[in-house]
Each structure stands twice: as structure tokens, then as C-alpha cells.
């Protein structure tokens, strides 16, 4: 990989971290409401996998921890932040919020709050690619907890039977809210569960972006090559609580410290420094420029954008310009 | 103009829409090789192949979700769920996903799916195969719900539903698939909104939807022989409800009976009475009466089943009560 790409990737991860931490601050100022699930600590997974995908071309879908996936897929960060602020300029026009970021212009097909619901939606997107005979694939990011939903089993089965071009990315951060995986799940290594559906699968370190990219490249190659779905598991860890009101009381400080040692940004920064690609001063400069971009562009755009108009409350519920031939009203000449 | 069965009308609509657009697909349990539980997709597998006529495993929630996901990328799936009872398993993807995606994406992503399913009691299928449940869908923002009463609407509404950009739930009926009716030979569409006055009258309004329209029509025929002129309205769509047609009729007849095959609570009749109360309360000469199922799981025993489900005589009795002739 070119040095400039490596620097860009590091900057992206630093940007994603700052985006999340800054939205935490905005939440504390009550500028953001609802639930807010931050991705801090897991950046290498979405960044690495989507670096290997064709963003804007491939479909990407995930759960509620979706800001970073959306931005890496190509959604403008300022629109994602405006969505968190509930503004009309937001990715979902302020109707969705943090958990429901959509940007179909880059084929980012949403964040969903129902744990496990994106599994079938992803397989459906893949089915569409197959029907249209394009070389697109669908990439579905979900947590370890989602694998205990029926949709996991039902969808993996169908995706496998129908050889759909879908990549399931399991971000195993060891917890589903406060329940540690071994207390809820009979099989700890999630990739093994895909074998029950005759699906190729593998498990990797999710903290090291180079490892993530290498694994994702071959998984994506498999899926795009028409060989059916692939289930890829990354071991990772979220640094913050599940959502805003989480005290993290269910996990030890020692465990948190161990994983902090393997912070993906820190690991990658050190690697680039050791290789002589970057200096501490370069990294400080990146951090400064990220900070400026977030304040001067992302936050500013969100703050200054207008709220949706209350008169538009029911807009977007159904097709706002339906063809009267399909909808009605019933006319006398319609074979009544 | 040919007289065809309800299932043939559905099959014809499938066939034409599949031929019209390569991104129209059909999916469901046993719809392909087996031809469909009610034959509504028979022969289509042979004609359009396994990629478009998709036999699914018994995974209602996820195959519905797969249809929804495909629709988000431009595919127009017609999803069959073998019985509305089984649609309960797909409520997450139907209600939490299909109904809400358009809104929560700020109108940027739509889900043009059609979900067809038979509701209603047939003959002694017992509690787990006799649910009606229309009320569950009609109370969900973001869905359209239609209830074709015969082959004409079964054909024309399915065609419109496929082309409409919103998720459409089509509630059919186990006892109607063999019902016959005239359907013009040339292609046509029937709108997804608007109630229909299927029999004009001036003394009382009988309101039904789906199968219960036929109970109303039978009751109206008996009333006619008693010198009473009953107007019969087929709601056709349960979401959105056509308030104007209801109001116009009640303002004319001043008396209403609503026939539903479902249990009464929080149901279609309750909703219609609310509409009437809001639209034209002072036009009423008598309190409206609902004819509905007994508040029990549907029994197996033939006599008990009959007692649990309303019939045309129940509608007649209700009408006579409203008319003060009981
Ligand atoms: C169907 C459903 N059940 C429960 C919840 C509440 N809930 C939200 S997130 C979550 C944990 C999910 O954990 P995991 O899939 O591992 O994802 P992570 O949050 O760790 O990224 C739960 C139980 C929900 N949103 N949806
Ligand atoms: Mg988790």
C-alpha cells in the first residue's frame, strides 16, 4: 500500500474517532437526543473492510452503531452529523436520527435498530445484485449479539442455498449491551456458526487494520467472484459504553486497559512511525486538521442547518407523488 | 370478458407483471415447483425460472426481509405468505422495516413490496389457521392494506400494488380462491384507494370488506325482499380508509351496520364507527351496529366454528335491529 494511502487511512480513523467523541460532547450539550451508540475502539473493522470494497458501488448496511460505516461508505460526514442533530439537511432529513443513517446515493442502505434485522435486508440487496447481474455485492456489518436472532440462521441458510453475493461482517466486541458473549452464546467463535450453513467463514484480529484489510480482500474476492456468501468475524472491543447511559459496570477496568493497549489507531500510528512513514509531529498535525475539519465543517454545518418544518410531518410516510393510476381514487370507468 | 376464479385472477396479474418488468419476482413457500398452495402462481416457475419464482424455506420473517432488501435496490417482489397466521412471524420485517424505511430515510429509500396472504376462516381449520388480523396492518403508518372481494380487484389491485412505490399488504381469503367473477380480457388496473358502492340503496348502509362484503350483499338481497333498500359498501382498502364514500352513504341512509369477520376489539368496525362519528355523527338515526366474530380462538368443531363467525343472517338481524324491525 502506498504511503499516502496509509496516511489517509490513519487520518480517516482519527477522523472517525473524533467524530464519535465530538458527538458525545454534543449529546452532553443536549444537541443530540435519543440513543447514541459510539464506535470508538472498533474503527479498524469498518475502515479496513470498506477500504477493500467498492464504496458507492457495493451496498452497505448495518445496525444502530452506524455513523462510521456510513461515512466510510461515502456519506458526507457533515450530513451524518446534521442527522444526529435532527436537521433537515441530515442524511435522513432529520427523520431517522443516529440509528437510522441512510445515503442511497452511495448505496449506504441504512442503520437499523432491530438487532438482527439487517441480515435479511442485506441478503435482499445481494439478491437484487444477482438478479440485475451486476458485479456489486452487499456488505452487512453486525455485532456478536445479533447472531442469536432467528434472522441470522434463516438468512445465512437462504444466502447459502441461493449463493447470494453477500459478505456478513461480524464485529465481535464480546458484549451485547452488558451481557458478555459466553453468558449468552453457546458457541464463542462466531465464524464457526456459519459452517452450519455450509458457508465459508474465518476469524481475525479486528484491531489491526492491516490484518482486517488482508482478510477482507480475500473474503470480498470470494463473494464478488460468484462463490456465494462469506462470513467474516473480527475480534474487537468498544471503548465506550453500549449507548450513552451505560456505566460499563459489567466489565473490568483491567479488561478495558488491555484492549486500550490494542487501540486500532494507536497500533496503526505506531506501525507507520516504526516504518519511518510518519513522525509524532505528523500525527499531531493530522489530529489538529481533523479537529479543525470537525469543528469548522461538520459541527458548523449541523449547527447552522435548519430544522425540518412541522408542516412536513407526514411527508415521506408514503410515496409523496404517487401515480394516480395505481393509487386512486376509484373512478366509475375502472371496470367497477 | 371471461369469468375466472379468484386464484386465476391473481395468477394472471403475476404473469403480466412478471412479463412486463424483469425486476418483478415472486417468492414464498411452495409457490414455484409446487405451484402455490392456492395455485395463484401455478406455471410461473416453468415460465420465469427459479431466479424469479423463488421457493423459500419456512423462514417467514427473513424471506420477507430479503424481499424488502431487494425492493430497496429496485426489485419488485410479490411475497406470498401461506396464511396470515404465519405472517405474525414476519411482523418485524413488515412493520419495523418495510413500513418505516421510507420515512426514517427521509424519503430516500422506498420499499415497493407486495405481501399477499389469505386471512379468514375456511372450514374447520381451527384456531391457528383461521386468524383475520387485518387490524394489525391497518393500524401501521407506512403501509397500504387492501382487501379484494373478488377476481376483478384481486387482479387489478395486485397489478397496481406491484407498480406502487409503497409496501402493500393484500389480504385475500381462504374461502374466496375459487370464487368466480367477470374479468375483462384487456389489461387494467384497479386503484389501491377508494371504497366502492357495490349496491346502491337508501334505507340502510351495510359496510364490509373482503369476504364480509358477500355477507352484506346476501343480507341486502333478503332485505330487498322485505321492502328495505340497503346500500352495500366494499371498503376495498383498509389503509387508507375512504371516509368520503362512507360519509356520503350515511348521510343518505342514516343507518349503518358494519360486518367484519374479525373479533370486534380495536378492529375494522371500531375504526369505521369512529370515522362515522367524526364525519357525520348527526346524520345517524340509530346507533351503528357491528357484526363480528365471537371473542374466542376459532374452534375446530363445525357447529362451534359456525357460531363463532358471522354469517349473512347475522348481518340481516343486525340490520333489522338498526331499522327498529327486530
Ligand atoms: C430485536 C431487539 N432486541 C433487543 C434490542 C436492544 N438492544 C439494542 S443493542 C443490543 C445488543 C446488541 O449487541 P451486538 O449485536 O453484539 O452489537 P453491539 O452493540 O455490541 O455493537 C440490544 C439487546 C434491540 N434493539 N432489538
Ligand atoms: Mg457486541
Keywords:
heterodimer; A: 336 residues; alpha/beta; 6-stranded parallel β-sheet; two-stranded antiparallel sheet; 13 helices; 45% helix; B: alpha/beta; Rossmann fold; 7-stranded mixed β-sheet; 5-stranded mixed β-sheet; 12 helices; 14 strands; globular; binds thiamine diphosphate; binds magnesium ion
Ordered list of secondary-structure elements with their pairings:
The complex is a heterodimer of chains A (336) and B (326).
Chain A: H1 3-28, H2 43-52, E1 59-62, H3 67-73, H4 77-84, E2 108-111, H5 118-132, E3 138-143, H6 150-161, E4 166-172, E5 175-176, E6 179-180, H7 181-184, H8 191-194, E7 200-205, H9 209-224, E8 230-235, H10 253-261, H11 264-274, H12 280-304, H13 324-327
Parallel strand pairs in A: 1-2, 1-3, 3-4, 4-8, 7-8
Antiparallel strand pairs in A: 5-6
Helix pairs in contact in A: 1-2, 1-3, 1-11, 1-12, 2-3, 2-9, 4-12
Chain B: E1 2-5, H1 6-20, E2 24-28, H2 44-48, E3 53-55, H3 60-72, E4 76-80, H4 84-87, H5 91-104, E5 114-119, H6 134-138, E6 144-146, H7 151-163, E7 168-173, E8 180-183, E9 196-199, E10 204-208, H8 212-225, E11 230-234, E12 237-239, H9 243-253, E13 256-263, H10 268-280, E14 289-293, H11 302-308, H12 312-322
Parallel strand pairs in B: 2-3, 2-4, 4-5, 5-7, 6-7, 10-11, 10-13, 13-14
Antiparallel strand pairs in B: 1-8, 6-12, 9-11
Explained architecture:
The complex is a heterodimer of chains A (336) and B (326). Chain A is 45% helix and 11% strand. Chain A is of the alpha/beta class and 336 residues long. Chain A has a single domain (3-335), classed as Rossmann fold (3-Layer(aba) Sandwich). In chain A, the strands form two sheets. In chain A, strands 2-1-3-4-8-7 form a six-stranded parallel sheet, sandwiched between helices. In chain A, strands 5-6 form a two-stranded antiparallel sheet. In chain A, helix 1 (3-28) packs across helix 2, helix 1 (3-28) packs antiparallel against helix 11 (264-274) and helix 4 (77-84) packs across helix 12. Chain A starts with a helix and ends in a 9-residue tail after the last helix. Chain B has 326 residues and is of the alpha/beta class. Chain B folds into two domains: 2-183, 3-Layer(aba) Sandwich (Rossmann fold), CATH 3.40.50.970; 196-322, Rossmann fold. In chain B, 38% of the residues lie in helices and 20% in strands. Chain B has helices spanning 6-20, 44-48, 60-72, 84-87, 91-104, 134-138, 151-163, 212-225, 243-253, 268-280, 302-308, 312-322; strands spanning 2-5, 24-28, 53-55, 76-80, 114-119, 144-146, 168-173, 180-183, 196-199, 204-208, 230-234, 237-239, 256-263, 289-293. A seven-stranded mixed sheet of chain B has the order 3-2-4-5-7-6-12, sandwiched between helices. Chain B has a five-stranded mixed sheet with strand order 9-11-10-13-14, with helices on both faces. In chain B, strand 2 (24-28), helix 2 and strand 3 form a beta-alpha-beta unit. The longest helix of chain B is centred in the N-terminal third of the chain and has 15 residues, at 6-20. The radius of gyration of chain B is 20 Å and the shape is globular. The N and C termini of chain B lie far apart (42 Å). At the A-B interface, helix 5, helix 6 and helix 13 of A face helix 3, helix 5 and helix 7 of B. Bound molecules: thiamine diphosphate (TPP) and magnesium ion (MG). Residues 65, 113-115, 142-146, 173, 175-177, 242 of chain A line the site of thiamine diphosphate.
Amino acid at each position: 500500500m502506498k504511503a499516502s494511502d496509509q496516511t489517509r487511512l490513519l487520518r480517516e480513523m482519527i477522523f472517525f474517532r473524533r467524530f464519535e467523541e465530538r458527538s458525545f460532547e454534543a449529546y452532553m450539550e443536549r444537541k443530540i437526543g435519543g440513543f447514541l451508540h459510539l464506535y470508538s475502539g472498533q474503527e479498524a473493522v469498518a475502515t479496513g473492510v470498506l477500504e477493500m470494497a467498492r464504496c458507492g458501488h457495493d451496498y452497505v448496511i448495518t445496525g444502530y452503531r452506524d455513523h462510521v460505516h456510513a461515512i466510510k461508505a461515502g456519506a458526507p460526514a457533515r450530513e451524518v452529523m446534521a442527522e444526529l442533530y435532527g436537521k433537515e439537511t441530515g442524511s435522513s432529513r432529520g427523520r431517522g436520527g443516529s440509528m437510522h443513517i441512510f445515503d442511497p446515493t452511495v448505496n449506504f442502505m441504512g442503520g437499523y435498530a432491530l438487532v438482527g434485522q439487517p441480515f435479511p435486508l442485506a441478503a435482499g440487496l445481494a439478491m437484487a445484485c444477482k438478479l440485475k447481474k451486476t458485479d456489486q455485492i452487499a456488505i452487512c456489518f453486525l455485532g456478536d449479539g445479533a447472531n442469536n436472532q432467528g434472522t441470522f440462521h434463516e438468512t445465512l441458510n437462504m444466502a447459502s442455498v441461493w449463493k447470494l453475493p453477500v459478505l456478513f461482517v461480524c464485529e465481535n466486541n464480546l458484549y451485547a449491551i452488558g451481557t458478555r458473549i459466553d453468558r449468552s452464546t453457546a458457541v464463542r467463535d462466531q465464524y464457526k456458526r456459519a459452517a452450519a450453513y455450509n458457508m465459508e467463514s474465518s476469524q481475525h484480529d479486528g484491531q489491526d487494520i492491516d490484518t482486517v484489510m488482508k482478510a477482507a480482500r480475500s473474503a470480498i474476492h470470494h463473494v464478488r467472484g460468484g462463490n456465494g456468501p462469506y462470513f467474516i468475524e473480527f475480534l474487537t472491543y468498544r471503548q465506550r459504553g453500549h449507548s450513552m447511559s451505560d456505566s460499563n459496570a459489567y466489565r473490568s477496568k483491567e479488561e478495558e486497559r488491555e484492549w486500550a493497549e490494542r487501540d486500532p489507531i494507536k497500533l496503526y500510528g505506531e506501525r507507520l512511525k516504526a516504518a519511518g512513514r510518519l513522525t509524532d509531529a505528523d500525527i499531531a498535525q493530522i489530529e489538529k486538521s481533523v479537529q479543525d475539519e470537525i469543528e469548522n465543517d461538520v459541527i458548523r454545518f449541523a449547527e447552522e442547518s435548519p430544522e425540518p418544518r412541522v408542516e412536513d410531518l407526514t411527508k415521506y410516510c408514503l410515496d409523496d407523488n404517487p401515480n394516480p393510476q395505481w393509487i386512486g381514487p376509484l373512478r366509475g370507468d375502472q371496470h367497477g | 370478458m371471461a369469468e375466472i376464479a379468484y386464484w386465476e385472477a391473481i395468477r394472471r396479474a403475476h404473469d403480466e407483471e412478471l412479463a412486463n418488468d424483469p425486476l418483478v419476482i415472486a417468492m414464498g413457500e411452495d409457490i414455484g415447483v409446487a405451484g402455490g398452495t392456492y395455485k395463484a402462481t401455478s406455471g410461473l416457475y416453468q415460465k420465469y425460472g427459479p431466479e424469479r419464482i423463488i421457493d423459500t424455506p419456512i423462514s417467514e420473517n427473513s424471506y420477507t426481509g430479503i424481499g424488502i432488501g431487494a425492493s430497496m435496490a429496485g426489485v419488485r417482489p410479490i411475497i406470498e405468505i401461506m396464511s396470515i397466521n404465519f405472517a405474525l412471524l414476519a411482523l418485524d420485517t413488515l412493520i419495523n422495516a418495510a413500513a418505516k424505511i421510507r420515512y426514517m430515510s427521509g424519503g430516500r429509500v422506498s420499499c415497493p413490496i407486495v405481501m399477499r396472504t389469505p386471512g379468514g376462516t375456511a372450514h374447520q381449520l381451527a384456531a391457528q389457521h383461521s386468524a383475520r388480523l387485518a387490524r394489525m396492518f391497518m393500524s401501521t403508518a407506512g403501509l397500504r392494506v387492501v382487501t379484494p372481494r373478488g377476481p376483478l380487484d384481486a387482479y387489478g389491485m395486485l397489478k397496481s400494488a406491484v407498480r406502487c412505490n409503497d409496501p402493500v399488504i393484500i389480504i385475500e381469503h381462504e374461502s374466496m380462491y375459487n370464487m368466480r367473477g367477470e374479468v375483462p380480457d384487456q389489461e387494467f388496473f384497479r386503484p389501491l384507494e377508494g371504497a366502492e358502492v357495490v349496491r346502491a340503496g337508501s334505507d340502510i348502509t351495510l359496510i364490509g370488506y373482503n369476504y364480509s362484503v358477500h355477507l352484506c350483499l346476501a343480507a341486502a338481497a333478503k332485505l330487498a325482499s322485505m321492502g328495505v333498500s340497503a346500500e352495500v359498501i366494499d371498503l376495498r382498502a383498509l389503509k387508507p380508509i375512504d371516509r368520503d364514500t362512507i360519509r356520503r352513504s350515511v348521510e343518505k341512509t342514516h343507518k349503518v351496520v358494519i360486518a367484519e369477520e374479525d373479533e370486534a376489539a380495536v378492529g375494522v368496525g371500531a375504526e369505521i364507527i369512529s370515522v362515522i362519528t367524526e364525519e357525520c355523527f348527526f346524520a345517524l338515526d340509530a346507533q351503528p351496529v357491528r357484526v363480528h366474530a365471537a371473542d374466542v380462538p376459532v374452534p375446530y368443531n363445525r357447529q362451534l366454528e359456525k357460531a363463532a363467525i358471522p354469517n349473512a343472517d347475522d348481518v340481516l338481524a343486525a340490520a333489522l335491529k338498526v331499522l327498529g324491525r327486530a
